[in-house]
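Copper transport protein structure dump, as promised
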Amino acid sequence: MDHVHDHAAMASTTSSVMNHDHHMMEQMSDTNSMSTGHGLHNMKDMMMMAMTFHGGYTEQILFDQWNTKTVGSFVGSWFAVFLVAVLYEGLKSVRDSLARRELCETCSPSQNRTQTMGRLFSMAHIVQTLLHILQMTLSYGLMLVAMTFNTYLFFAVVLGAGMGHFLFGWRRSSAIDYNDHCH
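structure tokens r here:
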């Protein structure tokens, strides 16, 4: 692929769109799309995400439909993220409690712990697997919210996780959580 362009001319042009990858800076057409040498892309899809912490209430959170354009919608979103972080910590405690109960049942003298296939397909293991999938989904979702780099949303995740740990963490059998994925 031949990429011939004049970097001096590009630097002096103020209406060009520039990315650190110089392949993105080619030409603008009248239809508000950009030719990148890799096909045409709509300018709406070319928005750059802030990679430093910032404030403000106008934010797109996780999905195209979850846009906060007013202070009220942002505050509601903040509390939703906070609540999800609290519930995430609660879910970890529920999983720990179920695992302790299942461990006590399988270690009883009446059961043989070597029944691997039976344990693999047991209802307790299936429930733990489904809860683990839910925990991972919430964990990575919270990580992506924090990665919006919106300071307020970042603190919604951190403070929600802290509140959840305060409310539920004392019930866990260990302070070390080997099931944490993102924090």
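DSSP finds five helices and five strands in the chain.
lmk if u need the other ones
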